[in-house]
Amino acid sequence: MQDKVRSAADRQAIVPAPKGSGPTAVLQATPEPIELPLEHTAVIVVDMQNGYASRGGYRDLAGKDVAPAQAVIDRTRELLASARGAGISIVYLQNGWDAELKNSGGPDSPNWHKSNPLKLMREKPELRGKILTPGSWDYEFVEGLEPQPQDFIVPKGRYSGFTGTDLDNLLRSRGIRHLVFVGIASNVCVESTIRDAYFREYFCVFVKDATQASGPAFIQDAVIYNVETFLGWVTDTARFGAAVGAAKA
Fold first, then answer.
1. What phi and psi values does residue 98 have, to the nearest 5 degrees?
2. Would you call 210 exposed, middle or buried from its count of C-beta atoms within 10 A (0-12, 13-18, 19+)?
3. How far is it, in rounded angstroms, from Cα 41 to Cα 204?
4. 36: helix, strand or coil
5. Which of 130, 138, 189, 209 is catalytic?
6. pLDDT at 4
7. Could you confirm whether 189 is annotated as catalytic?
8. In angstroms, rounded to a whole number, what is the distance separating the alpha carbons of residues 32 and 29?
9. Which residue is catalytic, options 156, 204, 208, 209?
10. Ranges of each domain in the chain
């Protein structure tokens, strides 16, 4: 019985921010609350681009249902407003490849064979240079989630935001060790970036109602399980807003 009581208490223990971190916010999350040092936290917005979340974009052209993405857009907009109000840094990841696909890796790269946009461009050559290509509408961020002048944009050409980018340098040079993740797709680019962040000693928070999986509904549940059990913490938009709104010094 005593072991059960101790286990319950351990689950409710707050994961503290480093001492001397400045203003903090206690975020209600699973498996336990976590204290965010506001000046050392960043929201990572993953691939909220027209190609992934808008009608007429890559996923729509590939026959995927993009209607659920609107809820992700709405919740992300809400969360970003809360984050900006608390002075939290915001980093946008932007996925894509040059028009000639030089940075795709080519046939000798597994990325060439497994990336669905690259496969679609091979199946429909007329889409090459039009989907997820810098300068195209497809590559741009969705309306209402445009980066602000103080935000950061990190282009990428692989699932993880850390692979072949300056993301790690950008974060470490600003003393950022806590990351809050929103975007698409939960089980692909979001989880890949979370895993790489975890391996680099970042504290990762997954916002379950501001993310969307690619695949059956149970995939989102699997990502939630993976994050809260092995990789970090899980919360929602309302809890994030409440936490930063009540931030203490």
1. -65, 160
2. buried
3. 10
4. strand
5. 189
6. 47
7. yes
8. 5
9. 156
10. 16-245
C-alpha 146/C-alpha 90 separation (Å) is 11
pLDDT at 122: 95
* pLDDT confidence of residue 9: 47
Is 64 catalytic? The answer is no
CA-wise closest residue to 61 among 132, 114, 110: 132
In the chain the first and final C-alpha atoms are separated, in Å, by 38
236 is a catalytic site residue: no
Q: What integer pLDDT is reported at residue 248 of this predicted model?
A: 53
Options 3.40.50.1000, 3.40.50.11290, 3.40.50.850, 2.60.40.10; CATH for 16-245 is 3.40.50.850
Low-confidence ranges of the chain (pLDDT < 70): 1-12, 248-249
Q: Match 């939290």 to its residue by tokens.
A: 88
Local structure of residue 102 (DSSP, 8 states): G
Angstrom distances, CA of residue 121 to CA of 86, 138, 191: 41, 13, 24
Radius of gyration of the chain (CA): 18
Angle between helices 69-85 and 237-245 (to 10 degrees): 10
Q: How far is CA 186 from CA 48, 159, 173, 207, 234, in A?
A: 12, 11, 27, 10, 12
